[in-house]
Amino acid sequence: MTQWLASFLCTSCLLGAPSVFATPQQLSGQHPVDNAAPAQGIFLVFPFDNDGAGPRLDWLGEGLEELTIQRLSDDGQQVYSHAGRAAELERYGLPTSAKFSHATMLRIGTDLDADYVVFGRFNSDGQTLTVEARVLRIHPAGLSPAVRESGPLSSLMDLHARLMWKLLAANDPKDKQTFAQFGQLQRPLRLDAFEHYVRGLLASDDDQRVKELRQAVSLDPEWPAPSFALGQAAFSRRDCEGALTWFARIPRSNSRYVEAEFTSGVCRLLLDQPDKAELVFTALQDSLKDNLVSGADLPEILNDLALARARQGKTAPAMDELRHATDLDPDEDDYPFNLGLLYLQAKDPASAEKYFRLACDREPDNPEDRALLIYSLQKAGKKDEAEDERSSAEESLGPNALPAVKPDSFGKMQRVTDELDITALQLEIVSSQNALAEPAAKGDGSTTSAYSLVRKARAELAAGHLDSAETDYRAALAAQPDYPSAHRGLAEVLRRQGKLDDAIAELQAALARRDSAVDRTTLARIYLEQKKTAQAQDELQRALKLAPNYTAAKQLLEHLQGKNPGGTSP
């Protein structure tokens, strides 16, 4: 039995322990008050299983997930988006719509730093719809009683609202909110508009997606969700004028506002309106800082803000922002690449070489990174080094892989970040809010205190505060020495500090507790930084045995096997 499976079986045993959730008898009228702590934290929602309804209602699986996310958000809860959950499943090579065991959902919730996982099922005889939902608590592990509602298919919206009220009551016995009060927080939704919206999200054909979403807007013009989805659809086609029109309909109070604003800023860059882009990114950055205890910066925003300023001749602040983005994300090559371009434009090829070399270290197979490194070496007078780099690049990438470098095209080569990691942003906001709301953890060895410390440490790490993050991660491990998330986080801190052997030891400690394709891929990257190619390849092969579709591991292994034709596929 693998260590990963053993740990999951132990976790599954916990799910049978007595629950501290409210009983069904407590769900009528006002919720009773007891001495339990209020439920605060992040919710992660999975699609609901079709448990007997006909295929015509298959859309309800993701539909109930989306509706649950919206209901919880309207109630003021922090909820991961569907996209955030789907991205995490991709890391494990898991299909986004598969049925998962409680243990698998618990693991995914733990790795996403969620506090509660919501899942359920539905069935229908063609006339009546029955929906059931449960909450899986992460720390300490526990499973709530099922809550259930039935009614005519046409009553789905009211039925689901009552279901969510019951679910929140079961999850938080101190909540005194009546159903009427809960309902006042919920935006009324038309069932027909909601169905068109979900069918639009699920459509594989772009024209069909837009048709369904436009129908949803026409039925419910004030509902922001389909407008946001249409903005995303327009942006995917690089129809920036259309995207800006749709994103302008998203109110500041909406949970998708940050994404809409960020993409609007990207559109301004693509439309060559750097002054307007700067205003968008500056306002967004200031707003986020006001809402984060750590005053954190996000590298995606820093990168695009830097480009907006650089295009207006504000080179010095642009360079500062790109350096900070480079430090915040140790794997992304776009930030040092953009910084190298600015140094070339500033006639400083020696500094440009430093950042193009860093970009090549992060993404060895990128021909553009390699070509600019060679160009910088040549301009810096390092002819022999340039020729060595060219020979190495032609050997690994092919004789005609390197693009021609034309100085008058440097501006066009800038790399705009067009996607914001909203999942990480949500986590950081909640971690920071919890740091304000809760006193410092007591360090009494409890799971809860270690969990709080890890959440606080992640907010500090996201802000680039390595010393503070290290202190909190070590405190979490003092409270709970076998906590994988604390070992993993400390490994990232140590990696950024250049303490690679110590980082490896922490990742191995995390893997000893729970195997992970993500951790093994990170371990492989560190081995590559140490020029230990064989160990890196071994870790990647192990990662792909766990998660055969994990893109990061597949791409890195393909790169290594391309350099070593004798390598074997996993």
Written account of the structure:
It is a single chain. The chain is an alpha/beta fold and 570 residues long. It has 4 domains: 3-22 and 33-188, ABC-type transport auxiliary lipoprotein component (Rossmann fold), CATH 3.40.50.10610; 194-291, Serine Threonine Protein Phosphatase 5, Tetratricopeptide repeat (Alpha Horseshoe), CATH 1.25.40.10; 299-413, Tetratricopeptide repeat domain (Serine Threonine Protein Phosphatase 5, Tetratricopeptide repeat, Alpha Horseshoe); 422-563, Tetratricopeptide repeat domain (Serine Threonine Protein Phosphatase 5, Tetratricopeptide repeat, Alpha Horseshoe). The protein has 26 helices and 7 strands. It has helices at residues 3-14, 60-74, 82-91, 102-111, 156-171, 179-185, 191-202, 206-219, 224-236, 240-247, 257-270, 274-291, 299-310, 315-328, 334-345, 349-362, 367-379, 383-397, 422-437, 447-462, 466-479, 484-496, 500-513, 517-529, 533-546, 551-563, and strands at residues 42-45, 49-50, 78-79, 116-124, 128-137, 142-143, 147-152. Strands 1, 2, 3, 4, 5, 6 and 7 form a 7-stranded mixed beta sheet that branches. Helix 17 (367-379) runs antiparallel to helix 18 (383-397) and helix 23 (500-513) packs antiparallel against helix 24. The longest helix has 18 residues, at 274-291. It is globular and about 75 Å long. Mean pLDDT is 83; it is low at 1-39, 435-446 and 565-570.
